[in-house]
């Protein structure tokens, strides 16, 4: 009898356990109406924000390997050191050109004997790196000041003094001349340095010492680092905002970014101390300067390469209000306004215009097709509004079709934010730039941020956003999955409100692992390699799966923005005739989802499903594990107009399926 009792009890426990489990895992039914288009999505909605912070330009995207190549740093030998071995005797010092110009100095090497090894060494941007079999192009200007039969030996050397690559230049003359030598590398290595060695007794003047890999993006001389640009190109960005945020303002007006100093030949570009050189006491970078090897021409060219709309931001005559808040008097603002007018001419002007001709001289006779221009960055108060009014009037008088981006200050809320929105709305502003660096929880909570914005008011440019994980306690905040997942949840809200949110970009974009000032960042690199973060993969999934119309995706008749831990958006792509849905599960446990397709769907197509998921919210990618977390591709099938998915806990899921025309 006992046996039957235990069997019966076991049956009851098992029955109710199964029933309870089924109840806990019963599918949530979401509905997508394929015929009810809610809004159009701008074709350039998801883009990139670039700022020269974290050595993102010099030492990063700009492939120049020599730091302080023309000896123009305030400390002329910063980055350089003297080489004198095995009895070599000599001196090195800088000389000034007789003619005034932006390139003011050159190096003189004075060798007193012909013994041993004598010259100068450059350690690059936190050292250099080479790859076996690749060529490295050295160029420099030189003239013989004294002596006969002088020659130059150039070397790339490792820490153990092994020679990775070398080349020789002979027949130097007593007139300034540019020399070029190609040096193939025998090995792959980081922690490399460069030496330029004088052979023969005498004196040699040297300037504009430059070293680039031959294999740059698009094969351009003095070009960009190929692996970094490829990561950007893979995102298929709709726009590229440049040259940054705070560097536009400068810590004072002299330190602001002036685009006219960044174009023309390299010797015509004016060196500037990067404001991030001294901004953070815990991450001082006294060797951080802007050579402007990437200037406004290169930014426009890169935008064109990426198929992205260029979006330049200019100073409005207000320095960073966190630093000096220095202001140009309104009566003296004409120079700043004219810079904006001239920039539009540089980008779009005909060949017979002054600045259009400058663009053509640099190798691009066709206009760049500029549509946007930003006035100011993270400025606030009436000081900004009165300057923005002057810019708006002048730009619209000259170029009425240019869309002006205005700023709402550095924070996504508060007194200054509210003041600027009120004033800019009165003025019928076209695009207002909002910035948010907040906790992951803030991003999840604010997925409905734009649900109640005025549909007839200004449009939003979500110009800088990143979740700063609360699990990271030190200044090096890692790009972990908690942050990326929360950004994905927030981005479904941006997409659902694409009639309000016109453009959006994560920030900052790039960071050198040995030279960063700010973290987290979307792509990390050293001198040899780079890796993408989980945040990168989230941004890429949205930008490469955008669609052009917003559809409703609902649960119990309501949009999903955190209800029961689920966030969702849906779009349709008329060009490919595909439905695209994005579902974020922020629950630690898996969820069964059934998507019911109302409307025009018919057939039994298989769909693609991209999934990023991890039980560990602290997981992050690294050089050792560059794909510790990244998208996996799966498939699903539509049966009777339903898509059944089993979502993992803590996951972003992006699906695509063909629909009927």
From TrEMBL:
Residues annotated as domain Alpha-L-arabinofuranosidase C-terminal: 463-651
The entry's keywords: Glycoprotein, Hydrolase, Signal
Catalytic activity entry: Hydrolysis of terminal non-reducing alpha-L-arabinofuranoside residues in alpha-L-arabinosides
GO annotation terms (biological process): L-arabinose metabolic process
Gene Ontology terms for molecular function: alpha-L-arabinofuranosidase activity
SMART domains for this protein: Alpha-L-AF_C (SM00813)
Claim: Secreted is one of the keywords in the record: no
SUPFAM superfamilies: (Trans)glycosidases, Galactose-binding domain-like, Glycosyl hydrolase domain
Enzyme Commission number(s) of this protein: 3.2.1.55
Classification via Pfam families: Alpha-L-AF_C, ASD1_dom
Residues of the signal peptide: 1-21
Similarity remark: Belongs to the glycosyl hydrolase 51 family.
PANTHER family registered for this protein in UniProt: ALPHA-L-ARABINOFURANOSIDASE 1
Name recorded for this polypeptide: non-reducing end alpha-L-arabinofuranosidase
């Amino acid at each position: 009898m006992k046996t039957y009792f235990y069997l019966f009890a076991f049956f009851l426990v098992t029955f109710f356990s199964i029933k309870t489990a089924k109840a806990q895992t019963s599918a949530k039914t979401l509905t997508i109406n394929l015929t009810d288009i809610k809004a159009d999505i701008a074709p350039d909605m998801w883009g990139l924000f670039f700022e020269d912070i974290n050595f993102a330009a010099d030492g990063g995207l700009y492939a120049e390997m020599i730091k302080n190549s023309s000896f123009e740093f305030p400390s002329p030998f910063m980055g350089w050191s003297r080489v004198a071995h095995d009895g070599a005797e000599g001196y090195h010092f800088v000389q000034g050109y007789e003619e005034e110009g932006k390139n003011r100095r050159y190096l003189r090497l004075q060798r007193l004997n012909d013994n041993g090894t004598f010259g100068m060494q450059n350690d690059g941007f936190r050292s250099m790196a080479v790859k076996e079999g690749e060529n490295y192009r050295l160029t420099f200007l030189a003239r013989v000041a004294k002596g006969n039969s002088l020659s130059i030996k150039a070397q790339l050397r490792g820490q153990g003094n092994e020679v990775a690559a070398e080349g020789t230049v002979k027949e130097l003359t007593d007139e300034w001349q540019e020399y070029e030598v190609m040096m193939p590398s025998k090995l792959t290595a980081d922690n490399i340095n460069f030496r330029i060695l004088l052979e023969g007794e005498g004196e040699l003047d040297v300037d504009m010492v430059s070293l680039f890999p031959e294999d740059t993006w698009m094969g351009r001389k003095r070009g960009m680092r190929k692996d970094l640009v490829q990561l950007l190109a893979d995102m298929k960005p709709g726009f590229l905002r440049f040259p940054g945020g705070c560097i536009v303002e400068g810590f004072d007006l002299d330190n602001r970014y002036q685009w006219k100093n960044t174009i023309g030949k390299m010797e015509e570009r004016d060196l500037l101390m990067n404001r991030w050189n001294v901004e953070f006491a815990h991450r001082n970078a006294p060797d951080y300067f802007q050579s402007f090897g990437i200037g406004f021409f290169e930014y426009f060219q890169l935008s064109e390469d990426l198929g992205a709309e260029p979006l330049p931001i200019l100073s409005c005559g207000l320095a960073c209000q966190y630093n000096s808040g220095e202001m140009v008097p309104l009566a003296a603002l004409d120079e700043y306004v004219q810079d904006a007018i001239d920039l539009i001419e540089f980008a779009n002007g005909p060949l017979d215009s002054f600045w259009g001709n400058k663009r053509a001289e640099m190798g691009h006779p066709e206009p760049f097709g500029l549509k946007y221009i930003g006035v100011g960055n993270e400025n606030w108060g009436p000081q900004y509004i009165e300057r923005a009014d002057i810019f708006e009037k002048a730009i619209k008088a000259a170029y009425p079709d240019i869309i002006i981006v205005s700023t709402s200050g550095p924070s996504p809320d508060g007194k200054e934010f509210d003041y600027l929105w009120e004033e800019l709305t009165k003025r019928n502003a076209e695009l207002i730039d909002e910035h948010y660096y907040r906790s992951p929880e803030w991003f999840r909570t604010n997925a409905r941020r734009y649900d109640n914005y005025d549909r007839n008011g200004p449009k939003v440019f979500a110009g800088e956003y990143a979740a700063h994980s609360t699990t990271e306690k030190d200044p090096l905040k890692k790009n972990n999955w908690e942050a990326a997942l929360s950004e994905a949840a927030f981005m479904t809200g941006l997409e659902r409100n694409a009639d309000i949110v016109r453009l959006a970009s994560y920030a900052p974009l790039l960071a050198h692992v040995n030279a960063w000032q700010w973290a987290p960042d979307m792509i990390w690199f050293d001198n040899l390699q780079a890796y993408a973060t989980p945040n990168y993969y989230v941004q890429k999934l949205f930008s490469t799966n955008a669609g052009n119309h917003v559809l409703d995706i609902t649960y119990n008749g309501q949009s999903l923005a955190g209800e029961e831990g689920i966030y969702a958006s849906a779009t349709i792509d008329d060009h490919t005739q595909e439905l695209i849905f994005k579902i974020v599960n922020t629950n630690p446990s898996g969820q069964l989802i059934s998507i019911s397709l109302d409307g025009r769907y018919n057939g039994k197509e298989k769909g693609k499903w991209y999934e990023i998921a991890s039980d560990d919210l602290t997981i992050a990618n690294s050089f050792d594990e560059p794909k510790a977390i990244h998208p996996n591709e799966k498939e699903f099938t539509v049966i009777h107009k339903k898509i059944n998915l089993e979502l993992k806990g803590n996951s972003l899921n992006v699906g695509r399926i063909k629909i009927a025309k």
